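Good morning C.,

I know you're traveling, so I'll keep this short. The sequence:
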Amino acid sequence: MTTASTKPAPIRRYVDHVMGMPISLALRGRHQDDAAGRGAWAEAMAALRDVDRVFSTYRPDSFVSRLGRGEIDVDSCPPEVAEVLGLAELARQQSGGAFDVRCAGPGGGLDPSGVVKGWAVERAARPLRVLDDTDFCLSAGGDLVCRTLDPIRPAWRIGIENPHALDRLSAVVPVRTGAVATSGLARRGAHIVDARTGLTPEGVASVTVVGHDLTWADIDATAAFAHGPDALRWLATRSGRTGIVVWADGRVDTLAPSGLGS
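The tokens, ready to paste straight into the viewer:
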């Protein structure tokens, strides 16, 4: 995904890397380039690094890795682990079992990544939300949360990558205040499975969800993708979501008019 405003406006951009992905922030308004803005960015990155320490499945010493190996139980983990696993269980129930962090990839095991990414970025955005008269767009590997306070400022324009040609866009979604998440296989390969079968879904290339909260936009994008040919039908059951589904044959379907108001 890419972000840009609809007309020239001063924007300060910050970029870093954590959790195995690029993190970027666009700020505009009062604190776009002062100590408060830079401090909020530093706090956001610190929050994401802490999440990586607890939840990374690539770090053998993380709490989630140790939990998955049976070395510790949930009560021995930071309370955030129980929170994430609670969200994961709710997502499993609401997806009819298609989304399950205990069968989230080849070989099974415990992998809460499908919950953690959106949840982590929502948490990381907290110090940005307290900046007065300042808009932001915080992106983690293309999933992002945006805020626009001033009604005369333009919406953030979010480019949705074409999974069949990553140098092109399938759509551009204007978002003033809200969240956008995309799930697909184009960049990371077959890492999403239908937990009911353990197989990578066929027929769908990517699912993008626009919602008010990145935690659930991210979960729903992954769950919809896991439904494969039924992705759009399942997403239509989710209240308040805008959905864009790119199918394996190149067709693009939109669940509702693109974009969210503030």
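Safe travels,
E.
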